[in-house]
């Protein structure tokens, strides 16, 4: 059974529709190169593209929201849907062994960020990020904490983000998203054998 599961394509579609946003995401964890990302926030689009590129995932995103009010809803809901799509793509992760945890420290010019995650079935987000005052264009960069909180909730994973130092907010946030892609690539990597990496013999649900 486990051998058969290892050959299943790990891809999924997820959607969230509310009065505030409409977010549709498709991801393929085992195929690189196909990226078609459209959101109402150009910088969010850029970050998702960086995430998929450095994680070597195929990613299709169509996300619209009430950005005339604030970018909060769209950023948060996109994180939720992305995390949910990855969880659904993993599917039988409780019986198909993966590395489960991963991390990456990414340098972006004068900024340095580390992202570590554990796909354990328990949602938790630690955001140890102190950005410089000011927006990225018109976007409040502190809203990306809501993206990562939503991502952790959707994936049911523990996610820690630490920013060691920052030269500007664009570089800092981009280093974080690239680190997420690299760390997630490590965590979702298939491993040999039939035993999952848990002394419980299972991940939490």
Write up this protein.
By secondary structure, the protein is of the alpha/beta class. It has one domain (2-187): Imidazole glycerol phosphate dehydratase, domain 1 (Ribosomal Protein S5, domain 2), CATH 3.30.230. 34% of the residues lie in helices and 28% in strands. It has helices at residues 2-6, 42-55, 72-90, 144-155, 169-187; strands spanning 11-17, 21-28, 35-39, 58-65, 101-108, 111-118, 124-128, 158-165. A four-stranded mixed beta sheet has the order 1-2-4-3, with helices on one face. Strands 5-6-8-7 form a four-stranded mixed beta sheet. Helix 2 runs parallel beside helix 5 (169-187) and helix 3 runs parallel beside helix 4. The longest helix is centred in the middle third of the chain and has 19 residues, at 72-90. The chain is globular. The model has no long low-confidence stretch (mean pLDDT 91).
Quick rundown:
This protein has 205 residues and is α/β, with parallel strands linked by helices. It has helices at 2-6, 42-55, 72-90, 144-155, 169-187, and strands spanning 11-17, 21-28, 35-39, 58-65, 101-108, 111-118, 124-128, 158-165.
Helix/strand layout:
Elements: H1 2-6, E1 11-17, E2 21-28, E3 35-39, H2 42-55, E4 58-65, H3 72-90, E5 101-108, E6 111-118, E7 124-128, H4 144-155, E8 158-165, H5 169-187
Parallel strand pairs: 3-4, 7-8
Antiparallel strand pairs: 1-2, 2-4, 5-6, 6-8
Helix pairs in contact: 2-5, 3-4
Main attributes of the structure:
about 200 residues; 5 helices; globular; Ribosomal Protein S5, domain 2
CATH names the topology as Ribosomal Protein S5, domain 2
Oligomer: single chain
Report the end-to-end length measured between terminal Cα atoms. Answer: 20 Å
Give the ordered list of helices and strands. HEEEHEHEEEHEH
Radius of gyration, taken over Cα atoms and rounded to an integer in Å: 16 Å
pLDDT averaged residue by residue:
91
Q: Give a count of the beta strands, DSSP E runs of length 2 or more.
A: 8
Structure class: alpha/beta
**What percentage of amino acids are in beta strands?**
25-35%
Tally of helical segments: 5
Tell me, what's the shape? Answer: globular
The low-pLDDT segments are none
Whole-number tally of structural domains: 1
Q: What would you say the CATH architecture is?
A: 2-Layer Sandwich
CATH class: Alpha Beta
Strand count, sense and barrel status of the largest sheet are: 4 strands, mixed
Relative helix content: 25-40%
Strand order of the largest sheet: 1-2-4-3
